[in-house]
């Protein structure tokens, strides 16, 4: 079966074009399959046409993967501008659009900071009303005592991390960040999702409150042992400022968009997973609020 690739992460497409990818199928879901690369040990994702572009991801013209006859551990290789998965699936990449995600810059003038402040306030209210519970946002009627306790732990640890960041206690902030890794429900646990949102903010250019490389390095290192491989690669990419397209679009709206433009961007993120999108948004809000406090009215560009 031949399927056309619609778009893909530029680095992934370049690796495929060089016929420099081999490995095996790591995991199979309805809208994605994950491949593990034998050269660098990283996970790469093949997503259906409903998904947005993301690091290490290729979007292909297919509705779902459950009926394609793929199996875990099936071999993966490249030949003649084609990604070959198992015995029957061939993905043609030659006409795929290259995607290169770039986080927006934090605003550097009073007007821009005012727009951001307004959009942060709007987003907080929107998440309060429309955000999904079960992770970082506690339900008024938790499904079980376990869910209630899990949400309590997530909120408590995220709160301690936020307080550390506000008071420039970076060593303590690093430890509280690590305490969130792997915590919570879902394929990408809620604590991981919160950190993805937080990292995306602190990796914006011109950010007033910088975090040193060891903070991000510790998140990457600790994720290898504390969470699953799929979530770990997402955290690793976020710690290097590489996040999915819908998240970049949201942050772009946050720094320069109107509330009318912000609503569809928020809805797209909230729609991710059971509570993953909401957890990501809460991480973004934490990072932006700390930086609005740290930056005053204007943030000066880095020299």
Automatic annotation (TrEMBL):
<protein>
    <recommendedName>
        <fullName>DUF2877 domain-containing protein</fullName>
    </recommendedName>
</protein>
<dbReference type="Pfam" id="PF11392">
    <property type="entry name" value="AllH"/>
</dbReference>
<dbReference type="InterPro" id="IPR021530">
    <property type="entry name" value="AllH-like"/>
</dbReference>
């Amino acid at each position: 079966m031949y399927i056309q690739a619609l778009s893909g992460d530029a680095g992934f497409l370049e690796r495929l074009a060089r016929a420099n990818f081999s490995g095996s199928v790591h995991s199979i879901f309805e809208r994605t399959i994950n491949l593990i690369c034998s050269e660098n040990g990283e996970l790469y994702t093949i997503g259906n046409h409903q998904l947005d572009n993301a690091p290490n991801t290729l979007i292909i013209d297919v509705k779902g993967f459950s009926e394609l006859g793929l199996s875990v551990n099936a071999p993966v290789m490249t030949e003649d501008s084609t990604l070959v998965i198992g015995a029957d699936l061939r993905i043609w990449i030659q006409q795929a659009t290259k995607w290169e995600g770039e986080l927006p810059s934090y605003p550097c003038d009073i007007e821009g900071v005012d727009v951001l402040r307004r959009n942060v306030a709007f987003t907080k209210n929107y998440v309060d009303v429309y955000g999904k519970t079960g992770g970082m946002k506690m339900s008024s009627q938790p499904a079980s005592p376990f869910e209630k306790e899990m949400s309590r732990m997530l909120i408590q640890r995220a709160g301690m991390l936020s307080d550390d960041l506000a008071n420039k206690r970076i060593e303590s902030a690093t430890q509280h960040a690590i305490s969130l890794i792997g915590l919570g429900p879902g394929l990408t646990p809620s604590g991981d999702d919160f950190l993805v949102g937080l990292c995306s903010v602190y990796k914006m250019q011109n950010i007033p409150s910088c975090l040193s490389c060891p903070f991000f390095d510790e998140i990457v290192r600790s994720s290898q042992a504390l969470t699953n491989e799929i979530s770990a690669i997402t955290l690793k990419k976020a710690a290097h400022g590489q996040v999915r397209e819908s998240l970049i679009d949201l942050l772009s709206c946050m720094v320069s968009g109107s509330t009318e433009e912000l609503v569809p961007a928020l809805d797209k993120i909230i729609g991710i997973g059971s509570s993953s999108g909401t957890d990501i948004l809460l991480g973004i809000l934490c990072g932006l609020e700390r930086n609005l406090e740290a930056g005053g009215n204007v943030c000066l560009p880095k020299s």
